[in-house]
Automatic annotation (TrEMBL):
Classification via Gene3D superfamilies: 3.40.50.2300
Lineage: Bacteria, Pseudomonadati, Pseudomonadota, Gammaproteobacteria, Enterobacterales
Keyword annotations: Phosphoprotein
Residues the record lists as 4-aspartylphosphate modifications: D55
Phosphoprotein among keywords: yes
Organism listed in the record: Escherichia coli
Name of the protein this chain belongs to: Acetoacetate metabolism regulator (Two-component system response regulator)
Coiled coil: none
């Protein structure tokens, strides 16, 4: 089993992103954040996160569409 190091946090609410990012960073994780699905897709391709935590309702591209797009390219990364 591979260790989880990089977490991609996707939420359109700043306070949720900050809270999750801070909590995971304090535990030693490398966190990356996006405020919509479209930005998340770019980060997903660039950083190859170990886990993705994503809100469902967001502007530009919602979480369901973004998750489907991510899954079509990469099937091993856990997407929540």
């Amino acid at each position: 089993m591979t260790a989880i190091n990089r977490i991609l946090i996707v939420d359109d609410e700043d306070n949720v992103r900050r809270m999750l990012s801070t909590a995971f960073a304090l535990q030693g994780f490398e966190t990356h954040c996006a405020n919509n699905g479209r930005t998340a897709l770019h980060l997903f391709a660039d950083i190859h996160p170990d886990v993705v935590l994503m809100d469902i309702r967001m502007p530009e591209m919602d979480g369901i569409k973004a998750l489907k797009e991510m899954r079509s390219h990469e099937t091993r990364t856990p997407l929540f």
